[in-house]
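Technical note accompanying the year-one report. For the benefit of new consortium partners, we illustrate the data format agreed upon in the data management plan: each record pairs a sequence with a structure-token string. No post-processing was applied to the example shown here.
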Amino acid sequence: MTRPPPGYHGQYLRIDVSTGEVRAVGLPEDVLRRFLGGSGLGTWLLLDDNSAACDPLAPAAPLAFVFSPLVGSPLTTSAKFAVVSKSPLTERINDSLASSGFAIAGKRTGADALVIVGRAPRLSILLIDDGQVRLEPADDLAGLACPAAEAALRARVGNDYSYAVIGPAGERLVRYATISHDGRHAGRGGSGAVLGAKNIKAIAVRGTKRATWAQPQQLAAYAKDLSARSFGPATAKYRELGTASNLLVFNRLSALPTRNFQAGSIAGAEALAPETLAVARTRTQASCAACTIGCEHLYGLRRTDSAGDTAQNVRLEYENLFALGPLCGVTDPDVVLAASHRCDELGIDTISAGGTIAFAMECAERGLLDEPWIRFGEGDAILRAIELVGSRQGIGDLLAEGSRRAAQSIGRDSLDFAPQVKGLEIPGYEPRALQTMALGFAVGSRGADHNRSGAYEADFSAAVDRRKLVPDVAELAIATEDKAALLDSLILCKFLRGVLEDFYGEAAEMLALVTGWDVTADEMRTSAERIVTAKKVFNRRAGWTPGEDTLPPRMLAQALDDDERARLSSEQLAAAVRSYNLSRGWTAEGVPTPATLERLALADI
């Protein structure tokens, strides 16, 4: 095999858990340079596997854990990996990213990616030790919550492995189940269900194979400077208040989705604000692996279980808070903390859980569901619904399918107010109050997604009128989407985007120091555009149609209950989507043209 460039091992492991067959598959340098790692390389792997037409829960469907050239380097926030597959929730491409020691240990197995196919004959642990692979039975772990499963693995297998596990939700194929590791989650889109469908309860990785760096001394100097800048004013609010720092601002602007997106603000939001929580209860701070920013805030929660009254530290982020609080009409912090904690234990995405439960609350309110207990503002209803989803019992079996499938089952026009795009529940940004973000949601390859589009940044600037969507904003939405695609492929934390003064120039410099390639800012721009377009190619092969690039009918027909000016028409959105498509070099309907595929070196996929 040709010697791989520094930063890479030049191969991935393809593991068939049905047969136990393991193949080391070479990754050509031109593929690595075009797709980098993370989400980009994962998209190429799925396209190369011709898996777009697969049922995402079928044995043949691949699940890829993808690292990047920067993993293991001294660069801050670089200990990240992507889990890439076809989503069982959306049936479109899904790339969930997370930070933990699993990224570093996984890359030390000597692979740039781990691609899992097949279905193990029994519930199993997949152990990868320096590239050597074996399966062990996991019957004793069946039904265990994520933290308990990881603790049991550490006691049984050892602390020198890093683990990725699924909870009961993944075992029961909840379509928005997560993969957990070190208390963090690859959350959106149901990658936990894909792993569960393969009968794999956990993956354990360790290794000794370290990648090299092209210019180690210069890389160390650059990393030291970047770390110092990452601890500066651009990230101060995340250290001081966490990701929930904008909650009260959103509430004041009627941009905080409330009661299943019927309103944009809620009375009593102050009780959930980090400024209040930090005073009212204990708080500790933590960082992801290899991170100098430290945005993670954990709050104390008293809970009573079989062991008695115990204190818990609960990780609380803005999206957990919004989805399990205001979206369901709740402002009791104890409920939101307990609900967030339980989702983490069961291995459930908090955004999809909150969105689907809020949808069910409105259905019950309208008489479309005969479940009188599931009502807006009822904290006990949220906690009960989460348990039912995790066990797939009663109404939980329907809610485990997500809001789109639930609406299709309920019928009676309930799909009009199901809070989803392409089947993925909408995050905590009210599209009518933040209309550049509305465009970002509509065109997102993963569905409604605040991590793949940062178009809300334009809405909070002087560049646009946030309540008046016009076609010209397409370029602004594209700019944030491309930056996100590059960060997710290198892979680095999104919070660095405000730290990098010359985003594409510094991205090129980092990659050059690691790999030795003579990359430029322009090449990085093209790489980002290529990765976004490759995702669209996958989705087209998976059955995507132009009609998917829209928002729920409610959001295109009604203003917010508490802000009559927050109104968005279907004509406005369609015009902006058309402008977005043409600006990308696609057809007006959103199909990449042959000339664009050729220019982006995608004609061969």
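Partners are asked to follow this layout when depositing records. The CA atoms of residues 196 and 446 lie 21 Å apart.
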